[in-house]
Amino acid sequence: MSVNRFICTGNLTKDPLVRELPSGSSVCELRVAVDGMGGLEEPGYITVSVFGKPGEAAARYLTKGWLVAVDGRLQFAQWDTEEKGARHEYTVIGNVEFLSAPRSPEESNGKQAGRKVARV
User: For the chain, which residues make up each domain, given as ranges?
Assistant: First the structure.
């Protein structure tokens, strides 16, 4: 029996992008930087796809810098481009949990404000 499960935490590198699929459902794509995934001290980057209402909520609330937890299955894709030749990407298809918002300049200077954390 094989298991395909990926779990990580990381920060969003850009604002989420939600798009509608031909079926009428939606998918939200997130780009997450995960510390230590690219090597000992280097971050690695993973694309996360969240479908339906949870993805729509992620697009509504999340922005670049949010700390999130990701849980899902890993999917591999490979394609050719004219400019760069063979390319590949790993995508996590699954769920995202909102952990903490990016700090504002005031919070970074020691003033803590209340944060709202939404769960999907």
Answer: 6-94
CA 18 to chain centroid, in Å, comes to 12
65 in the Ramachandran plot: left (φ > 0), alpha (ψ -120 to 50) or beta?
A: left
Identify the CATH homologous superfamily for domain 6-94. Answer: Nucleic acid-binding proteins (2.40.50.140)
Listed residue (72, 62, 74) closest to 99, CA to CA? 62
Q: What is the pTM of this model?
A: 0.78
How many Å is the Cα radius of gyration of the chain? 16
pLDDT in 10s for each residue of the chain, 120 residues: 889 999 999 999 999 999 999 999 999 999 999 998 877 788 999 999 999 999 999 999 999 999 999 999 999 999 998 888 888 888 999 999 999 988 776 655 554 444 444 444
**Spatial separation of the C-alpha atoms in residues 88 and 74, rounded to whole Å:** 13
Query: Six-digit token pair at 31?
Result: 């780009």
User: Amino acid identity, residue 47?
Assistant: T
